[in-house]
Design goal:
Rossmann fold; single chain; 7 helices; 2 domains
Length: about 270
């Protein structure tokens, strides 16, 4: 006889796959499960547990939402979007404290070329000798300069550190490696590590010296900082330290550090 757990799992997968393609749940009775965060659904005599995201019994005939990590990690912005998702300042401090190290950047210069409202530039200034900020759009913090076309001199700054628009991240890396004397670091979704195109254009010839994955979530909200925000998306720091050129890329984890690196002033 088929194990009931696997039978329920097959039912779940069947309905989930159906929903992904615009299908609808069959009519069913739904009752709350005593376990916090789950519901028990009774469909044609079978029961299974659904994820917390539903929050309430699904009405008869209601479409199921696909909440897989692969889907939740996607964020599609229009081509003319400013793609302004401010970086929580603690995530920038985490780069310096746990990946690059404060002593290695003391007294150096840094360029933040997608500064937005300055949420990354300010914490960088806590570590670097000087930080120059700019953005392709006016946010009232740095001058308006499109990093990809502005005539920055080659090797004009020690570091280039930024959270670039995701759709332009490859171009930002390419340009930053020309502008920076010592190193480049970009904050990007973990999936930036994927794709044949990025492998051939960047990683094959110029692999990062370090890939530092956040073990905590780094919530980002369009247009503002939100201390209470959450996200299903993973983020990592991609670092090119020219002093380590030729060495094998390091896989690193940014340890839990939000509580230690977050400041009240960050959200004022």
């Amino acid at each position: 006889m088929e194990n009931s757990y696997y039978r329920q799992e097959k039912i779940w997968k069947s309905h989930n796959n159906s929903a992904r393609h615009g299908g609808r749940l069959p009519e069913s009775d739904a009752t709350k499960c005593p376990s916090k965060g789950f519901e028990k659904k009774l469909i044609k005599g079978e029961s299974f547990l659904s994820e917390l995201v539903y929050g309430a019994p699904i009405e008869k005939g209601c479409c199921m939402q696909n909440t897989s990590h692969a889907v939740m990690a996607q964020r599609h912005e229009p081509k003319d979007s400013t793609d302004n998702f401010p970086t929580p300042p603690w995530a920038t401090r985490a780069l310096i404290e746990h990946v690059i190290r404060p002593e290695s950047v003391r007294g150096m210069t840094c360029l933040e070329p997608a500064c937005g409202q300055g949420h990354m530039a300010r914490p960088l200034a806590e570590y670097f000798g000087s930080v120059q900020s700019s953005d392709a759009y006016h946010y009232g913090f740095g001058p308006v300069r499109d990093f990809l076309v502005y005539p920055y001199d080659a090797l004009s700054h020690d570091w280039v550190i930024t959270n670039p628009p995701f759709r332009l991240a490859e171009q930002f890396v390419d340009r930053a490696l020309t502008v920076a004397r010592v190193g480049v670091a970009i904050l990007a979704r973990t999936v930036f590590l994927e794709s044949v195109g990025r492998y051939e254009d960047i990683f094959l010839r110029r692999p990062p010296s370090a890939f530092a994955q956040f073990v905590e979530r780094v919530p980002m909200v369009k247009g503002r900082l939100d201390r209470k925000a959450s996200t299903a998306t993973g983020y990592a720091w991609f670092v090119w330290d020219k002093r380590q050129q030729g060495e094998t890329s390091k896989l690193m984890w940014v340890p839990p550090c939000r509580r230690a690196l977050e400041r009240e002033k960050d959200y004022r």
